[in-house]
Amino acid sequence: MRSPLRTALTYVLLVFLTVMVLTPLFWVVSASFKPTGEIFSYPPTFLPQDPTLDNFTRLFQEMPIIQYIVNSTFLATSHTLLLLIIATMGGFAFAKYSFKGRGILFAIVLASMMIPFHLVLVPLFTLLYKFGWLDTYQGVILPYLASSGFGVFLMRQFILGVPTDLIDAARIDGSSEFGIYWRVIIPAVKPAMGALSIFGFLGAWNEFLWPMIVLRDADKYTLPLGLASLVGVYRQEYGMLMAGTLLSILPIMVLFLAMQREFVQGITLGAVKE
Amino acid sequence: MKPRYAPYFFLAPFFLLFGVFMVYPLFDSIRLSTYSVRGMRHQTFVGFENIERLLADPLFWTALWNTAYFALGSLLLQLPVALGLALLLSNARLKGRNLFRLSFFSPVLISGVFIAVIFYLLYDRRYGLVNKVLGFEIPWLQDPDLVMPALVLAGVWRWAGFNMVYFLAGLQSIRRELYEAAAVDGAGTWQTFIHVTIPALRPVIAFVVITSMIGSFQLFDLPYVLTEGGPGNASMTMVMYLYKHGFEFINLGYAATIGWALAVIIGVISIIQVRFFGVFREN
Q: What percent of chain A has pLDDT over 70?
């Protein structure tokens, strides 16, 4: 039994820590609506005394932020869809077929998760140069998908739980192998696909270094690239920086709130089920 | 399609991409590291010269030291915080548990670039919230001795909630009987923690330590936006140094060599940790 004092202490500590974690985020929101003078005022104001949309209007006027949002959405969505296809197909093969070389191929998938992407930054860049894929979206997306080993592994874990009877029944009904994949496996692992898709989307939405290397044309920039360039030009424009940050993290926060359960399920699977 | 070919068909997309965009570049990077590359078309074979140069390059050692500092600092500071948060939240009857968990987790969703922008303002010498709360004008990002601790703290804010989720899952999978047995034996809170909780969490601790080490050694976006590696080179990390040589100086051979050094270091550390925790030991 826990003593009331201990419970009370737990709450006090939790609330204190929550304040610590959320204050920077709250500060972003608050500062985006403050005129520049107020951001620098002392003592700091908690809520904007004189709320304004100036930071946002200037952001939209001086930066192609809508373009960045469109680019980021396009890039993250296509990355996610391709990741889902690759991972469910690979996971299905490992979970439900026995075939020559399965052990070694699965070991390769596991080992691929350990290779740091940064090791191949330079040779990848020269490869894209040879393909003529620099400054293209396929140049950003496809190399990044070579690291979908985690997704394959994750989907295998889930597909293992799909009853093999269902597959046999479909096969007796004359379904093709692809038909089984499409009509039996995919519907059965939809929740797991939810977890993987938020993963993929988050990764692609937030990735910075690789798109920065591949993309040259500022019209193709994603939100992190756009905002990083904003930092270079507007070092002192705190209000605009905060407004841009707010716009960039808002979509991902909303997505996460909508799908948080699937997400938490997905990240812990790798650590606990092994 | 016959059933016996089906698995290969389903595996083709992954292995095709993996082969073209990972395996081939891995071999190519071995080749590149023996060349001096000036621009895309001027390559001269130099053998081990890049490696010799790397070992004698003081800036490489600075970058390695800074990266190791960040990795170790994160390990010592962030993991206890993550475990502490998980322990606080492990009581299932706690009210608002989901809300607390969500709050602690939220920084993980934010790209390193935006975190860098937020901390750029938080750490501002005159107007930053940190100094306003502390009441001093501490030059967090301008003092070479303070910039790495400042980055470690930002890292704690960013990642503690992420690792907390792993610890929470680990705590939930500990069997109740273990705690009941400890209570029967008259073990106190601290003794239970040391003799029951920690041993039971060993696989999760191993996972978290190894993954956060690998992640820490690849630190890039936070210092790149926040400090540009400065002041001087006080916050230059290995991946930043790789980026500088590869994509600012277009010195691809040398950058590939730095990449290999990074991979070797990550590999060695991972092996040491796997052995230390006995990850593959039967239990």
A: 94
Q: What is the pLDDT of residues A156-180, one digit of tens each?
A: 988 988 889 999 999 999 999 999 9
User: Who among B127, B225, B246 is closest to A122 (CB)?
Assistant: B246
Q: Does B16 touch chain A (CB under 8 A)?
A: no
B255 touches chain A (CB under 8 A): yes
The CATH H-level superfamily of B54-277 is MetI-like (1.10.3720.10)
Q: Which of B203, B197, B207, B199 is nearest to B176 (CA)?
A: B197
Residue B157, chain A, CB below 8 Å: the answer is yes
Residue-wise pLDDT tens digits, A221-238 = 999 998 888 887 776 778
Question: How do the domains of chain A map onto residue ranges?
Answer: 1-52, 55-272
Chain A: give the shortest CA distance to residue B80, in Å.
14
Note the CATH architecture for domain A55-272: Orthogonal Bundle (1.10)
Question: What own/partner pairs with CB < 8 Å and gap ≥ 24 does B119-122 have?
Answer: B119/A24, B119/B150, B119/B154, B119/B222, B119/B226, B120/A231, B120/A241, B120/B225, B120/B226, B121/A27, B121/A31, B121/A238, B121/A241, B121/A242, B122/A24, B122/A27
Assembly ipTM: 0.86
